[in-house]
Amino acid sequence: MNDKSKYYVFNDEQQEIVFKRHDMPTPWINYLSNGTLFNMVSHAGGNLTWYKSPEIWRIGRYNFYTLPNDGCGMFVYIKDGKTGEVWNPSFLPTETKLDDWHSAHGLGYTRFYAKKDGVEVNLKCYIGKDNVVVYNVKVKTDDDRKIYVYCAQEIGMMEYVREVMWQYYCKNNYNILYDEENQVLNYEYFIDAQARPDETPFVAFTSDRKVLSFDADRLKFTGNYRSFRNPAGIFDNESLADTELRGGDAVLALQTELELKANEEQDVSFYLATYNTQEEYKYFTDKVRAGGYADYLFETVKEYWAKRNTFSVTVPDKAVERMTNTWNPLQAWVNFNVCREISHYATGTIRGIGMRDAAQDVMANVACDIDASKEKLLFLLSQQYNSGGTNHYMYPIEKREPIVSWRSDNHLWLIYTAYQIVKEEGKTDILFETVPFYDGGEGTVLEHLERSIKFSLDNIGEDDIPLMLESDWNDVLNTVCKEGKGESVMAGQMLVLACKQLVEIFEILGKDGSKYQEIADWQTKVLNDFAWDGDWYIRAVTNFGMKLGSKDEECGQIWINSQSWAVFSGSADNERGNKAMDSTLKYLDSGFGLISCYPPLRRNYPTPEQEITFMQPGVGENGGVFCHANTWAIIALCMLGRNEDAYKVYTEMIPDNVVAKYGVDVYKTEPYIYSSNIRSNFSMTPGAAGVSWVTGTATWMMIALTEYMFGVKPTYNGLKLNPCITNEWDTVKVKRVFRGTTYNITIDNTAKCGNHVKEIYLDGALVEGDTILSSNPTADVLIVMG
User: Fold this and answer.
1) Do the strands 16-19 and 8-11 form a parallel or antiparallel pair, or are they unpaired?
2) Of 160, 270, 280, 537, which has fewest CB within 10 angstroms of its CB?
3) 410-425 vs 355-365: helix axis angle to the nearest 10?
4) Dist. CA 523–CA 4, nearest whole Å
5) Are the C-beta atoms of 231 and 223 separated by less than 8 Å?
6) CA-CA distance, 745 to 729, in Å (whole number)?
7) Dist. CA 353–CA 474, nearest whole Å
């Protein structure tokens, strides 16, 4: 057992994770945002700010791969008037040894506590409803003392790629000038050929205390051959140089001071704001000068996260409880806002908005923000062609041409997302909104969804299974169809589910959806006649006719997705579904999640000419624990009533539990949110996780938990209740906000029958069936298992 408590502890009452040391293996990140302005901040204080797009409106710099790792951002410096010592409450970048230190991430904020030589500092970082990054600093001393408080943010070109390529020639196209009346440093970026020059924001940097001095010239601030670790402007001088800048290497730096009595606490706040008009600038400066702005903005942070709390549980397993209530919802929210574009592992330069990624992200956001979810779906539908196929990566903010890559799955996610919205809202209005096709013309949302089915049917292989095209969900299989013949069993299973959901939508509308039921029935028969391999379903057929995922092959004999999706889609009957999931647990269980395939593919398999993947064995989609895929396995196990198996798979891959098994230095990434993948025993470094935060795991684990394990599933007619919980739990409490009603649900499992509902009571009255709907503000629900 590894002693993770040396590194961090959870404070569940405050919904925080508290870090006891700065030297984690990687930066452990939090995202702060109001949906327009973003700040990505680590446990040690490194951070990056951007407005809407990290590609074209980036404010500052960040080290993604180069050393010193995580050493960039907006930093607060403390200079002790008594000792002359300079240090950071975030530890970075000075790395001055402190007497006491910890930091914490919470919902919408990150905070730091530091103590040195009788000076205590609490720093809280957040973004409220206005487009302002707030660094609120509270300082307390054990004797009468003067404390100088500085804040500095390195500034580069807003367009990251242009800066990398043409920094020397283009860095003169911005100004940083000081507004003496309002004590604000203003940054203006005005280079030609921007994507959206009329919308490029100005940046304002100020404090609510009197500004003693400032700097905009980076070299004046740092000094020759020095850095933000030991800037001469703070370490060597009594004040900053009061420099402005018209092009060059830039910084935003301010100096303030606090005169403190013994044991007196005072605070100072620094504000990094974006604005587009002089009216917005005046609003901002008036707010700062009026006082109380930092407190007001933090209240809006708390209000925002309270509003998003539409599902929570109380269960005996505190790891499950905290993931369900705090960290999984936070991660799903981040993915809805940034998709897969930027994290410590993604530089924010190429991914944009991915079709399959964004469509899935909407599904977890529907219960929290229906309007934003519908807006995102309508945008995604506008990226669909008349053929029913879709763009793969889109850049609506950057105004770049999309990347077109014909995939066998992209278009089908649109159906699942629309279906989720209709179920949550209990309305069909969105189905009749008109949306343009990307290549001309327009159609209703419903017509777009029907085109998705048409695209699959127009791309059927010789075995009557959808062609893989340039890949399905598993990008590792992108070579399967490079000659135009490879087929995807998963895409066939996805087609079945999509058709069934369309049938339900047509029934709600009072329309005839029988043709989609016929397609689902036809594809179900094909999959069972052709793809069943005796104990499980094969995964694909390659260009050369090889059945990938057959027990007759040396590599890739069994794949997780074609088993879980057989159950999820309903294309497998109960007998085959159970047999397929038996095989999944037998061959794919690593002890910390199910691996994606067994045995992993190797180089030059099956031949050098027909090689399927270059991915290392035991990594990612090639025999690693691909966390996203595990979510569908948990759903499948719940659908089969296998409550203990579902609980086992879920709890084994909770990040904190994996860390307890392998240790912080092996796992490496954050223990409070999911990573995309964990390396398996087929790799050289089992237990090592990678690509945290930006993964579809967040969305689908929320769905697996809320709709299948806790069994509170939205339908057009109300909430369908069918929990599948472990028999280790006697009582479970669930809160679900649905269509204006707060449902307080108690699950009584004292009969130790967590996979079967005996009775349901709504406000004391026995319910016929399994679906409830109330028009009251609150409703009490009892589910008796037995």
Assistant:
1) antiparallel
2) 280
3) 10
4) 49
5) yes
6) 15
7) 18
Q: Are 377 and 417 in contact (CB under 8 A)?
A: yes
pTM, two decimal places:
0.97
* CA distance readout (Å), 473 to 380, 533, 772: 17, 22, 35
135 burial level (CB within 10 Å; 0-12, 13-18, 19+): buried
pLDDT for 1: 54
DSSP string across 703-772 = HIIIIIIS-EEEETTEEEE-----TT-SEEEEEEEETTEEEEEEEE-TTS-TT-EEEEEETTEEPSSSEE
User: By three-state DSSP, how is residue 132 classified?
Assistant: strand
For residues 225-258, b (16+ Cβ closer than 10 Å) or e, as one string? eeebbbbbbbbeeeebbebebeeebbbbbbbbbb
| Residue 679 DSSP one-character state | -
Positive/negative CA dihedral, 373, 374, 375, 380: positive
Cis peptide bond prior to 316, omega within 30° of 0: no
Q: Which two tokens stand for residue 557?
A: 């004999």
Q: Reduced to 3 DSSP states, what percent helix, strand and coil does the chain have, rounded to the nearest 5?
A: 30, 30, 40
With the CA atoms of 59, 63, 65 and 69 taken in that order, what torsion angle do they form, in degrees rounded to the nearest 10?
-150
Residue 600, SS3 per DSSP: coil
Residue 218's SS3 state is helix
C-alpha–C-alpha distance, residues 25 and 40, integer Å = 18
Report the amino acid identity of residue 296.
Y
| Cα gap 226→539, rounded to integer Å | 56
Radius of gyration of the chain (CA): 27
CA 39/CA 50 separation, integer angstroms: 7
List beta partners, residue 689.
678
SS3 category, 332: helix
Q: Give every residue of the chain whose pLDDT is below 50, as ranges.
A: none
- State pLDDT tens for residues 590-643: 999 999 999 999 999 999 989 898 899 999 999 999 999 999 999 999 999 999
Alpha carbon 212 to its chain centroid, in Å, reads: 40
Alpha-carbon separation of residue 784 from 290, 629, 731 (angstroms):
56, 31, 10
Q: Cα dihedral sign for 335, 338, 344, 350?
A: positive
Q: Give CA–CA dist 126/135, Å, rounded.
A: 7
8 A C-beta contact, residue 54 and residue 42: no
Q: How far is CA 65 from CA 26, 30, 70, 186, in A?
A: 11, 18, 9, 30
Can you tell me the distance from the alpha carbon of 715 to that of 25, in angstroms, rounded to the nearest whole number?
44
Collapsing DSSP states into helix, strand and coil, what is residue 582?
helix
CB-based contact 44:53 (threshold 8 Å): no
The single-letter DSSP state of residue 196 is S
> What is the C-alpha to C-alpha distance for residues 209 and 219, in angstroms, rounded to an integer?
25
Contacts for 476 with CB less than 8 Å, ≥ 6 apart: 601, 612, 613, 615, 620, 621, 622
Amino acid at 205: F
For 366-424, write each residue's pLDDT tens digit.
Answer: 999 999 999 999 999 999 999 999 999 999 999 999 999 999 999 999 999 999 999 99
Retrieve residue 482's tokens. Answer: 């490079």
Nearest residue to 640 via CA among 563, 540, 692, 715 = 563
Residues 6+ away with beta carbon under 8 Å from 564: 581, 584, 629, 632, 633, 635, 636
Give the pairing of strands 778-785 and 741-748: parallel
Task: For residue 278, give every residue at least 6 positions away whose Cβ sits within 8 Å of its Cβ, in sequence order, or none.
Answer: none
The tokens 């990938």 sit on which residue? 548
Q: By C-alpha distance, which of 493, 528, 501, 530 is closest to 517?
A: 501
